[in-house]
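ok trying again, last paste got cut off:
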Amino acid sequence: MKLTTLFDKGEFVVTGEVGPIKGAVNRDKNIDPLCTQEAKYLQGWVHAVNVTDNQSAVMRLGSLAASVGLKQKGVEPVYQLTCRDRNRIALQSDLLTAYSLGIDNVLLLTGDHIQLGDHKEAKPVFDLDSVQLIDMAMGLRHGHDITGNAIENPPDMAYGAVVNPNFEPLELQLMKMKKKVDAGAEFFQTQAVYDRKIFETFINKASKLNVPIQVGLVVLKSPQMGKFMNANVSGIEVPQAWIDEIGSVEKEDRKMKAAEMMGRFLAEIKHMVQGVHLMPLGWADIVPKILQTARIAV
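nice, full thing came through this time. structure:
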């Protein structure tokens, strides 16, 4: 089911996220067991599960293969597609392939730069940027490729995009968000948010664009993780209070503390948005606790 159908019904849309393994599918099991196990924790608690596309520019099993595998297992995927590794021919072909294989939801992204990943000698493509990618995808829906040639059986998928509420100056991020809306983006998932005031400022301005927004929450697993993000991840600021709280418990208790913290924060901000995108980073088993704490059910 397309997420846009749920948004149109006024449902609070909940999505999770999994990353394919760095390896091939086990043919005997039909899909990699790690991706499936994480998705099982999420099944019944979320409407759909994002499948990352070589996240952080680290080479892994393709997002499309993993998305199709999850679909076969009864888990609704959100296929992520980035501009980093493909030119416009490949991007269009992959979208047509995804639709032909039963994919209903796509998140269209620029992609992390090669220098962040494990193949720094690779040549980045970036033939299109995210705004152009969205415009191209909408062109396919309307029956033509990027050069204007007609195509058969136009794909009809829900197209999502990303936005960073923490970006400074915020006005530049809002301008890009509007360009994505104008190009055809139908819903947004945000970069990780930890500060209610910053997010409220963003929402007060972004709501004028009249497009569904899911707040993005990355589970904070340790004080070291918070400090690392502050030092190395552009556009994310983890408040010291968060770092202190996750560090206030023993290591073996941090998983439940993280669930409590994320659930409490989500409960505070859920009235501002039309959904939440949870990024548990391997701790998918605490997603039910997060949603229970926030009093959210799908």
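cool. The two ends are 14 Å apart (CA to CA). The chain has a mean pLDDT of 94.
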